[in-house]
UniProtKB/TrEMBL annotation:
The chain crosses the membrane at residues 6-25, 73-94, 106-124, 130-149. Keywords: Membrane, Transmembrane, Transmembrane helix. This is Uncharacterized protein. It comes from the Bacteria.
Length: 159
């Protein structure tokens, strides 16, 4: 439940799936994006969760592919959510770069840029049976999803 030290190639793949679109986004931010009003407590949760998730997912080998078992379904579900995450980024990049477009739901999932990877990491933690990743996903979820919801609410107030 605590995890086994070692490199996780699955973790590296997940982080690349997370970081590459975010790097592209940093050059294509919404034209009306203003992070100055973000809640500092939520930002603290987000940053702490990012560090904990990154360390857990890279340096614990429990997420690497094992012989198929009932636990493998958690990995499959997790990876499916990461694929949806990538598709939601594609949708953003091929459309107008506005906050409204960035935060709109995808396949019925609210704030997909925050919700999908958090849910994927949570399921990956369940697959690996690693409490550290499960807890880290909850921590980052509080901050990251909370911040995205605040941005979405601000957009709705303007409209």
């Amino acid at each position: 439940m605590l995890g086994h030290l070692g490199f996780s190639y699955v973790g590296l793949i997940y982080l690349l799936m997370l970081w590459i679109p975010n790097a592209i986004w940093s050059k294509n931010k919404p034209i009306d994006y203003n992070p100055s009003q973000e809640n500092k407590i939520l930002l603290l949760f987000e940053r702490a969760g990012q560090v904990c998730c990154t360390c857990s997912i890279l340096f614990l080998s429990d997420y690497n592919i094992a012989p198929f078992s009932v636990w493998s379904w958690w990995l499959i579900a997790s990876f499916f959510l990461m694929i949806l995450y990538e598709i939601s980024w594609i949708r953003y990049f091929i459309n107008e770069h506005t906050e409204e477009n960035f935060y709109r739901s995808f396949c019925g999932i609210p704030v997909p840029g925050a919700s999908l990877p958090v849910m994927a990491f949570l399921l990956l933690g369940i697959y690996g049976k690693v409490i550290w990743l499960i807890a880290s996903a909850i921590i980052i979820g509080i901050g990251h999803i909370g911040i995205h919801i605040q941005h979405l609410q601000a957009i709705k107030r303007v409209l």
